[in-house]
Amino acid sequence: MKSRDNNRPVYAISIAADLTGLHPRTLRIYEEKGLVQPARRNRSRLYSERDLERVRMIRHLTQEVGLNLAGVRMLIEVSERLEVRGSTDAISWVIERTVRRRRVR
After folding, report:
1. Are 58 and 35 in contact (CB under 8 A)?
2. I need a surface site. Which of 58, 62, 88, 89 has the fewest CB within 10 A?
3. What share of residues in the chain are helix, strand, coil (percent, to 5)?
4. Which residues pair with 41 in a beta bridge?
5. Cβ neighbours for 50, distance < 8 A, ≥ 6 positions apart
6. Quick one: angle between helices 69-84 and 49-59, nearest 10?
């Protein structure tokens, strides 16, 4: 059995929307804001498993944690910087800290 490549773009926007429980327009907004960058073939957006994981994380941060898209973008940028430095589980650490701070207030 062939192993799956999580970075391989395979899902059209309509399928990605169904798999994430979001409207296709929401996915386009996330792309416009620079939060997700699906691959392009001709004029079609194609999402990978990794893209879908990121979209689910964005949905969690906006709907359950209560962050706006600017806050999500900042968390993603911090997470990516930590990953470059070699920190493991950087995004979960950042999210955990954010959730803890929001509960304390």
Report:
1. yes
2. 88
3. 60, 10, 30
4. 44
5. 6, 7
6. 130
**What are the structure tokens assigned to 54, written together?**
């990121």
Exposed/middle/buried for 7, CB within 10 Å: 0-12, 13-18, 19+?
A: exposed
Please tell me the predicted confidence (pLDDT) of residue 100. 61
Per the document, the length of the chain is 105
How far is the C-alpha of 72 from the C-alpha of 30, rounded, in Å?
10
Q: Are strands 11-12 and 39-41 parallel, antiparallel or unpaired?
A: unpaired
pLDDT tens, 32-55?
Answer: 999 999 999 999 999 999 999 999
